[in-house]
Each structure stands twice: as C-alpha cells, then as structure tokens.
Queue: 3 jobs
Job 1
Amino acid sequence: MDKRAAPVRHGQVKAASSPESSPEGTSETPRVPSVPSVRVLIVGGGYVGLYTALRLQKKLKPELKRGEVEIVVVTPEPYMTYQPFLPEAAAGNISPRHVVVPLRRVLDRCKVVIGEVRKIDHGKHTATLTTLATEEEGTGPVELSYDELVLAPGSISRTLPIPGLADHAIGFKTVEEAIGLRNHVLEQLDIASSTRDPAVRDAALTFVFVGGGYAGVEALAELEDMARYATRYYHNLRAEDMKWMLVEASDRILPEVGESMGRYTIRELRGRNIDVRLRTRLDSCEGRVAVLSDGGRFPARTLVWTAGVKPHPVLAATDLPLDERGRLKCTPKLTIDGTTRAWAAGDAAAIPDLTADEDGEDGKGGEDSKGGRGGKECAPNAQHAVRQAKTLGDNIVASLHGKPLKDYAHSYAGSVASLGLHKGVAHVYGRKLKGYPAWFMHRVYHLSRVPTFNRKARVLAEWTLSGLFKREIVSLGSLEHPRAEFELAAGGARPKDPKGSN
Ligand SMILES: Cc1cc2nc3c(=O)[nH]c(=O)nc-3n(C[C@H](O)[C@H](O)[C@H](O)COP(=O)(O)OP(=O)(O)OC[C@H]3O[C@@H](n4cnc5c(N)ncnc54)[C@H](O)[C@@H]3O)c2cc1C
C-alpha cells in the first residue's frame, strides 16, 4: 500500500448528537491498534454497492485479514434487489425472496449497517447516518468517518405535481411495490366479481400504467398476462372485461430495445387489447379518476407510475458536485469530479460514455436520448451499474496501491424484455428477437446475471415448477397487515381500507 493507504482517521465513529452512540457493526474497539486502517464507506447496497463490495473483498483479502482495511456498507435494507426480476415477481413466477440477495451472507468480510446516510461532508470525510437503532433509541443521527467514499444510492421515481398522484399511484422499483401491486390487482378481480355496482366494477377492472420504459412495459405486460389467466377462475369475469392502458408522453415505448422493436411491442400489446396511448400525459388522478391530456377520463382503482427516475435526493445533502439533473458529476475513472477519494457509479452518477461516438446510433441494440449510447453519459441501467462497479472496485484497489486508474468504457449491448409468459422482445448485439425466442433469451440472460449460484438455482427451480403446474393466482394482501385479525378479535374495529388508498 502507498502512503495514501495509511489513513489518518482510524475509523472514528462519533455521534452527531451524543458522543457515545455508534451505528450497528462499527464499534470502535481497536481492531489491530498498531496497524493503520482504511475505511471504505459504501453508501447503498444495490447493484453498485454490492458489486463494488464484492470486488473489494476479493481483491483486498489480505489487507482485510490483516485489519488494514475495513469495508462498511450502509443500506436501508439487508438485501440487494435484482430489479429486472420484479415484473416476474409481480406475475408470481418468482417468489419475492428469490428476487433479493442477502447482503450479510455474500459480503461476509464487510460490515453491513442497516441505515440511511442523510448527509455527507466530504471536506471532513464524514457521513451522517440514521440506523434502526438510532430511530428506536431516539438518539439522533450518528457520524461515521471514512477514508474512501463510494456513493451509490441509485435513483427514486421521478414524479410530477399531478393532482392525486401522491395519494393514489404506486411506483414499481421495489420488491414491496411489486408484490403489493400483484396482491392489489388480484384483489381488484375479487372486488369486480363481487360488486353489484357497475361503476365500482369498471374502476376495479381498469389498470393504468404511466411511462413506457422497461419497468412500465414489463410490469404491465406481466401483470396483464397474469390477470388474464386468473379471470378463467372467476364465474362472472372475462378477460375482455378488463381495461389495461399504457400512457406514454413521447411517441415510442421501450427505447431500450430500439425503434423497430419498440413498434413491435406496441403491436403486441395492442393485439392483447391493451390500450397504448402515445404522446399522451396523465393530467390528474384525483378521486381515482385518471384524466389524460387527450381528453380521456377513466375511473381506475389502479394507477402505476413508472415515468422515469431521478437521482436519490441524498445527493443534494452532500458537498459534492452535481450536474443539472442532480447526478454526481464523475470522471471516466469513476471518481467524483474535482475530488479525491470519492467515487460513484450507477443511477446516481453522470459518467461520460466513452463509447458514445463509436456507434451512438439508436436502433443497433442501443439506447436512446434517455442517456444511452446516443447521449454523452451512460444510461441508468443495470448493465452499466454492474460493469462500473467492477471498474470502480479495481480503481479503488489501484489507488490504494499507488497504481494508475482505468477508464470505464462499455458499449451498450442492448436489452431484453419480457412481455408475459412466453412473450418477449430483445435487441442484443444487433440481433432482434421477438415472441418466444426473445422471452427465452430474457430468462437465460437474467438467470446468468442474477447474483449468486444459490439464487440462480432457486429461480431456475421455480421456473421449472411453474412450467409443470398451474399459475399461482392467490392474493395475499392480508400479509401486509398481520395484526388486523388479532386486533379485531381483541375488540378493535376492522380497518375501513386496510390496503390504503391505492
Ligand atoms: C422494474 C425495473 C426493471 C429493470 N430492468 C432492468 C433491465 O432489464 N436491465 C437493466 O439493465 N436495468 C434494469 N433496471 C434498472 C436497474 O435496476 C438500475 O439501473 C440499477 O439498479 C442501478 O443500480 P444502482 O446501484 O445505481 O442503484 P440501486 O440498485 O437502486 O441501489 C441503490 C441502493 O442504495 C440504497 N440507498 C438509497 N438511499 C440510501 C441512503 N440514503 N443511504 C444508504 N443507502 C441508500 C437503496 O436502498 C439501494 O439499496 C430496472 C429497474 C427497474 C425498477
């Protein structure tokens, strides 16, 4: 290790409010008192966080063993979510716990702290965070010092000030949202089947998705496919009674698979009676009535908002440089512009796309103006996040060893998307596939990508079993309220709308 690796702050953890408190797993008993240590703080346990930590714990094994290096991962959940599997989880093809990767098990040489970073003062090399314990104890946030910072909090849904949106819509970024939505859709079929009020039935059977990127299109296509199948078990519902709608502000959908495959997807969805409305915006959803810019008005009990993402707001609570879209300004070496010992990647980072000029044209399996090869920065997707994390990990190791850093450069390989069971669309390395071959490719690709052999085996087993047996169509929405039955038994009132407003 070079001199930079001999840090000044040997992992001080001091409470912002009280000197005693320290976050879980960062207690300050001197590890190897005579040996100085480097603390690498990784903010976020998603794609970038997980893969960077994996890389570091592999490449810094001897240093970790000798106590010269400590890797701390701070993340709100103890798992990484494999987001491309969320639509399949919503459709019931994969169990929710197989869509996530347990961080403590795979990052066995790192310290995983379940908490949220609230502020970063890179000038002082400190992060302010809250943990489950600080919330429980009411002690206020704690400060954690670091030597190297990896900032990867990802993105959140990009919403607009549309009346009713915050009250009635749901996003599609987390496993909780995916499973909540599955339960909700199945519950709407139960409502529609049991009501005598035609207005309630219509609203229950109307499902509006806003945003035609892969999250929106895949979620809609998978859920529609699942609900269509489920209707065969209802004596008074037919698939044709449902109204599924995709609202997209631009003139195309699924830009990730290129223009012609996007057009194919529209035809495929319309062939299934899904109402795809391009150049249309959602103007309001007050009172659970979706009002569209083309004049359409649809009472709907389901409104899914997948109209893009924006960088995580915690970035604004740092002294690090942001671009006009609120992402961290980064160099191709994945350092944060104008700083030392601060690194970033993934959805939260604006990283120059060094391959953009090579073959930036859309329609060759590439991305579009949303930031893909046609743009000047890498698109916010898993393909880049995983590869960036690898380079980032290598560059931190190189920096600690006083070696030169490498540039990140990866040409977008294209995308695969599932449109329901046995249906899909793909545009990878210039090859266009549709229907069953694309769906099969989607499964093979993601099976090869989902982290850990354990998860691969479990997902494969589930797919195999679901090929042999009938699909699961049960709604387990009551799982979200495990105390409801007991509260009723104990004399409380049954909640009016236990599932909330959506
Ligand atoms: C439904 C869906 C389908 C997708 N399908 C594809 C696909 O098929 N192909 C593809 O390439 N991409 C796909 N993506 C995009 C891809 O998942 C993201 O680009 C990728 O997850 C970005 O990685 P990341 O590490 O930057 O962020 P994330 O993976 O989102 O990780 C961010 C992490 O930071 C944590 N965090 C947030 N705030 C804090 C804080 N204050 N303190 C500590 N931790 C914090 C979060 O909880 C999370 O664990 C899909 C996304 C969605 C939503």
Job 2
Amino acid sequence: MKQTDILILAKKIAEQYGYTLPKITFNKRLKFTTGKCYKFLNWIELNLDFCLNNNEEIISGLIKHELAHMKYFDHGDQWKKEVIRMDTIPLFCTAKMNRMINDGVWTCDINYPYQYVCPNGHISRKKMPIKEKSSCGSCSKYYDEKYLLKLI
Ligand SMILES: [Zn+2]
Ligand SMILES: [Zn+2]
C-alpha cells in the first residue's frame, strides 16, 4: 500500500473506532518491527517496507494493533479485547513478541519473535527459541550461568 493511502485508511479506522488520529510516520530503517507506538507522544511509526509490501487487510490489522497500544501497552487481555472490538484478530501477537523500550514505547516484532534478557538487561532477539541454556554474549564470551538469558 502507498503511504498516502495508508494515512487515509488510518484516519478512517480512527474515526470508526473512536480514536483521535495520532501522528503517523513511516520508517524505512525499522528492521525488527512492523510498527511502534509512542503513546505519550501520540505517535505511531510504521515499517515502510512492510507497508509497501502488504495489502489493505494486513495494514489495517497493523494500524488497529498499534492504535490499541494507545490504550494498552502490552498484548494482554485488555489489548486483545480492544483489537477484537475493532473487528480484527490480535495479529502479530501470538507468535510475535513485543517489548517495552521505555515508558510508552512498544515495538511489535515480526522476524525475531523470541527475545531474551540477561541479568544485566541486555536484550537479544532470536528467530528461533534457544534450546539449551545460554548466557549473554555481551556479558561473557563463554557460557557463564551468572548471565543466563531469560525469555521475555
Ligand atoms: Zn504490539
Ligand atoms: Zn548481558
């Protein structure tokens, strides 16, 4: 979908489901996420490549997904209910993970759904789940159980 069409679609969706339309921008540097919601800035950022390569149905799911984060930060039950109220399925949230970067910012990951954190807060993203116990590569070059990665 073209960016101009997406903005029109977003406006329509916001009106239909009772949202104030946030600022919407397109980011071609997003690699790991389809969209980001900056709740406190009233701003949604969409992955440009993803937008250009997907149809209206998918993009409208993405917009609803991010709009619902304006109300609920996580992918919990309230968020899911809100997405369902908007007549779509809670897409990108079962196999796909999201994480909080800082207050009010969520990013919904499509390619690296498994995210791990070490005791020192380093985040690693994986395409596949880690089978064995793994420790953080930033904290130690070798396996060290002090720095075990935990799925988040
Ligand atoms: Zn999300
Ligand atoms: Zn670490």
Job 3
Amino acid sequence: MNTHDPSRREFVQHASTLLAGAALAGLPARAAPAPATPGGRMALGDLRVARMGFGAMRITGAGIWGEPADAASARALLRRALELGVDFIDTADSYGPAVSERLIAEALHPYPAGLVIATKGGLVRPGPDQWAQDARPERLRAACEASLKRLKLERIDLYQLHSPDANVPYADSVGELARLQQAGKIRHIGVSNVDVAQLAQARAIVEVVSVQNRYNVATRQSDPVLEACEQHGIAFIPWGPLAQRQRAAEQPDPRVAALRAIAGERGITESQATLAWLLARSQAMLPIPGTSRIVHLEENVAAAAIRLSDAEMTRVG
Ligand SMILES: NC(=O)c1ccc[n+]([C@@H]2O[C@H](COP(=O)([O-])OP(=O)(O)OC[C@H]3O[C@@H](n4cnc5c(N)ncnc54)[C@H](OP(=O)(O)O)[C@@H]3O)[C@@H](O)[C@H]2O)c1
C-alpha cells in the first residue's frame, strides 16, 4: 500500500480547500470534483460500482421520519453525489417512510446508466426513531411493489432484507425475495443485520451479493461476517461507518484515538480517515456514509482517494 502519496494527499487537500472556499463564498461547490472512483470499483453480482457509495437515510425529517426541512436541498445533495462519481445509493422503504425513495426518484429519474439503487424491506415505522420488524412474505411482496413504484423502476438492482424478523422463519422471508427475483422484480438480493449462520441460511436459498451490517473502527462484532463475505465474493456494506465518533466521546477508544492522530498528521478529517480505514480494511468493503449536507458528502467522497499505509492500519489495530 502507498504510505505517503503526495499527489493523492495534495489532491484531497486541494479539493477540500476549493470546496471550503466555495462554501464560504456562498457559491455552489462545483469547482473541485472529488470522484468516488479512486477507491476502485467492485462487483455486486454482475454489476460494478465505485467503492464509495451514499447512504440516503439522512435526507428525511428528524428521527428518519417525514419530509426533510428542505426537500430541494435533499434533491441537490443526491444530484451532487452523482456528479462526484457515486454510482451506488442505499435507501429503504422505511426511511421516512417512503420519503427517501421518493426524493431519489424526484432528483435522479430518469436514472443514468450504471447507477445502482439499493433498497430494503422488512422494517416498519410506528413513529420517529422507532423501527419494528415485519418480514412476513406478504408484507415483503407489498413493500417491494411499493418501492418499485416510488423509485419508478421495473426491476430493483439490489433488494436487501433489512433485518431478520423474530416472528417469521428467516427462510420464509428470504424465500419470498427469491420468488420476487424469479418474477423479475429484483435483480440481486442482499441481507442485512445478520450473523454468520443467518448469512449461510440465506445463501442456501438464494445467491446473496451483499451484506449490510453495522461496522466501524470501534464496532467490529461483524468481523466474522466480513470474513465470510470475503470468502464468498460478497460485498460488505458497513452501516453507521462514522458512528464511532459519538461512541468515542462517551467512552475513549484507543483505536479511534490512533485514527484521529493519523488524520491530524495527514491533514485530513476524522471522517475521511475513518472511511479510508474501511476501504483499506477489506476489498469487500463498500462504504455508504450518510449525510444531509453537501459539504460532508464532498468531504466523504474525497476519502476514496486516500490510502492508509500498512503501518497506519497496524497503529489503528
Ligand atoms: N441496514 C441497516 O439496518 C441500516 C441502519 C442504519 C443505516 N443504514 C444505512 O447506512 C447509511 C449510513 O449510516 P448512518 O447514516 O446511520 O451513519 P453514518 O454514515 O456513520 O453517519 C451519519 C452521521 O454522521 C454525520 N456526518 C456524515 N458525514 C460527516 C462528516 N464528513 N463530518 C461530520 N459529520 C458527518 C451526519 O450528519 P450530517 O447530516 O450533518 O452530515 C450523520 O449524523 C445510512 O444512510 C443508511 O443508508 C442501514
């Protein structure tokens, strides 16, 4: 791995400076493209995407509930993601609910070739910040049909089972996704919030191309799942990739401290160091940092160009 790549470092710093200048001047930040592609591309079944996606959960109202304060800004954020080279957007029917998917269609339809929109079904929303499992086959079928309509798609490129449902045999939920795939409504199937045994159970029923689990520098309970993904050529999509900041504020973590020191030495932000760490952690990793702010989107996407060295990875541990 490249330890001190001055050209990349200068590129990231230059991009950040230009973008900060544009923001200060109140100008639209268009001057400094920071493409998602320097992180490389990876396979999702027969699709290929840049290894820096976008999580569209944060474009709704507070508590991932209802409309955002400024829907026009949310649509501009989505369009900016594409300008920056992002071609993988993660959403779910439960974000809003329905709001995130609808905004994606409003902002981006008709979709450019190569854009992969991944959505999910299996959770319902009793209210703000409240999530409940419902992965009954009939409910998944209705959720998938509704997502197709909202997203204005005939087939969803990646449909993820948001979570196992404690009240429904996992095989029944996964089996329904297999039927939806056979009916041509889903191209590829992913799972989320699973352990190694659940992943194996799903793989015995259908081809699984992605797993989406909580993972960041300070939250690594899914390491065995990540290993299974590497072994079977499955993309691992870490949710909450930046969440260690909040946790470390409550409980100091030496791994986060090491990452912060590296960020300081390199003149990059902690978020960028975190995303670069994820990219270096595994070739299976497909980060989807979520934000409601263009300035953070640009900062996060620029992290695709940052390579942490083996020594830096060892320091983080
Ligand atoms: N499968 C699941 O069960 C599941 C669960 C949760 C999330 N997800 C998916 O994973 C995606 C990412 O997870 P997440 O949104 O929970 O967590 P995240 O990406 O780790 O963090 C998002 C938070 O960090 C802030 N942030 C983003 N970029 C920043 C930056 N450069 N500097 C400072 N703060 C920054 C955001 O605030 P601002 O808006 O102010 O930038 C937001 O509060 C979601 O969008 C969603 O698509 C999936």
